[in-house]
Design a protein that fits this description.
The chain is an alpha+beta fold and about 190 residues long. It has two domains: about 100 residues; about 90 residues, no CATH class. The protein is about 45% helix and about 30% strand. It has four helices and eight strands, in the order αβαααβββββββ. It has a five-stranded antiparallel beta sheet with strand order 1-5-4-3-2. A three-stranded antiparallel beta sheet has the order 6-7-8, with no helix packed on it. The termini are far apart.
Length: about 190
């Protein structure tokens, strides 16, 4: 099989996959139901890989679609430069370019809810989380966003969904006059879902 015969098939599947990911995004915005984030992340990786391959296949002879496929190469190059050299400018550029593909990290999980760390860039404020409810293993229903004053400790903290609010049970640190820490487990906050 010649390489020229592979290009139309890969191009077709690339745009099918892009349409599927955009359809999942729009469905999530309008209905709150989306595919499992691990599955979507896999599809995004395949999309980026096929976009990079198609960039090199459309570069010579130059086709106008090479401009579209250059996004995949430029985002990879800028992220690689940021990882090698660091710097504020490259961090801002790579956070903008990585936003569509950055995977959601599960911070807390139980039988009824999952709490994802929200990606807001490398210079975002702390402790903003997205709460979802798993449905039929492949789907998730977005419940909303919560903001907490500290990072989640999955082994110490507990979350429960009750009447569209989150009950957040965590350790509370109180300091006495001698600066010795007194830790209590009985603090439960009611956090509204935004």
């Amino acid at each position: 099989m010649k390489a020229d015969n592979i290009l139309p098939g890969l191009l077709k599947w690339h745009f099918y996959l892009l349409g599927f990911i955009l359809l999942d995004l729009l469905t999530g915005i309008f209905t709150g139901y989306r595919l499992n984030q691990n599955l979507i992340f896999f599809f995004k990786l395949v999309l980026y890989l096929s976009g990079a391959i198609l960039f090199f296949r459309t570069l010579k002879p130059f086709k106008i679609t090479a401009v579209y496929f250059s996004f995949y190469i430029i985002s990879t190059a800028i992220t690689g430069l940021f990882l090698l050299f660091g710097g504020i400018f490259l961090a801002i550029m790579s956070s903008i370019l990585l936003y569509p593909i950055y995977p959601k990290q599960t911070t807390y999980k139980n039988e009824t809810i999952k709490v994802y760390n929200r990606f807001q860039g490398f210079f975002s404020r702390c402790c903003s989380y997205e709460v979802v409810e798993p449905k039929l293993y492949f789907f998730e229903k977005r419940l909303g966003v919560i903001n907490i004053n500290k990072s989640i400790a999955p082994d110490k903290d507990e979350f429960r969904l009750s009447n569209n609010v989150i009950l957040y049970k965590h350790e509370n640190e109180n300091y006495d006059n001698d600066n010795q820490t007194v830790t209590k487990r009985d603090t439960t906050e009611i956090i509204p879902i935004e």
